[in-house]
Amino acid sequence: MKRCPNGSRRNKKTRRCNKNSITRSLSSSQKSISKQSLHKNPTTKITIPQKILNQIKTQINDFSKCTSNDYDKMIKICETEVRYIESVSIINIRDNYTLENKRPCTKEVERTNHILSLIQNTLKYCKLHNKPISNTTIFLYVSDVYAYEHQDLPFFVVVKPKNKKGILIPDNTFYSHKSIKNTGEAWETTVKKCIQQHIPINEKINTIFFRGADTDNGRQNIRRNMYNLSKGKTVFKMDGLDGDKKQIFDIELSGRQPIESFTKYKYLLNLPGNQPWSYRFKYLFLMKSLVFNVDVKQKYKVVHDTNDTWINFFDVLLEPNIDYFNFDFKWSEEDYNHNRDEFRKLITNIKQKYSFIESQPNLYEKMVNSGFNKISKITNEVIYESIYQLILYYAKTMNSRLGIQ
User: Fold this and answer.
1) How far apart are the C-alpha atoms of 144 and 102, rounded to whole Å?
2) pLDDT higher for 283 or 4?
3) Do 32 and 107 fall within a single domain?
4) If you write DSSP's letter for every residue of 302-320 in order, what string do you get?
5) 221 & 357 share domain
6) Do 38 and 125 form a contact (C-beta atoms < 8 A)?
7) Taking all residues of the chain, what is their mean pLDDT, rounded to a whole number?
8) pTM, 2 dp
């Protein structure tokens, strides 16, 4: 059965939309339109990388077997299951370049509002460039915990493991992230600040740097163990893992500093947080410093499940050994000995790679420039065009399957 743009069923007799929406309308704060720049020349064609287009099609095609029954199931989940009540908003996008948040989430409000602002800006961009929009409905899930209970349902997500289903959408920090002053800062503003702070490679501090909260404590414990190691302490002393005697690590778990100040360090660590991914990954490539990424792959004992590398929307553009060095950490739930050995292996591999790249200045510069060039080309217009292509293909592919009109 076909559905109205508000998500309700059409009346079988009158064929008219049910005025009693299943959800409430957009709040005043969500109606505010971003002042981020839009492309001023409607004749200029904006293109996005083929890798992004391929990702969009692949992730949406993963749900090719969905039906209107799955739509009904998603509605019910959003009304009855706590995490989805807290983290999912049901968004109606309309062909007159407007959107409505018909069922706002109850907890992840700020994160949701920022993504809604990105979508609103995309609709303004589409109107400016005379790009057609189809009526559709998306289920926007913004928790940083994967929706593992409902992997076969087409939720839009900001992050997911590579080996799990989900439709990635650019995350909220492309609209606003908290600066050192706790004020919102747009993506393009941060890009400009980082570029202004660039310094020559030979003036960078030769250390592997990380600063962030101790958010993976009790899980992987990578941040705490690396912090102890960097302070000269022995980690897992029964197993002979000595402290950082050569002081190649500089790890801080307290205090804050402007992200653009990271440009002064020659090497930058990306470490997992509460979940095995972080927003900071994309920002590190703006510094023209070499990124060392610790890639946690999870194995769960209770549910007998594994998670591969966690990815965000634009991560597909970046390649290990081309733009950054990747270090696997195969974490296993409730397996102390295994995780201890993985940490020892991690530190050994990082030190070996550090020694290698220190002897390869041309390769260092090539990798740094490659990563920077890819990430710095993500402009507001590229973000809007990406979201447009995402909505366009979703509506074309999923509307008839889910019964959306």
Assistant:
1) 22
2) 283
3) yes
4) TTTEEE--EE-GGGGG--B
5) yes
6) yes
7) 88
8) 0.89
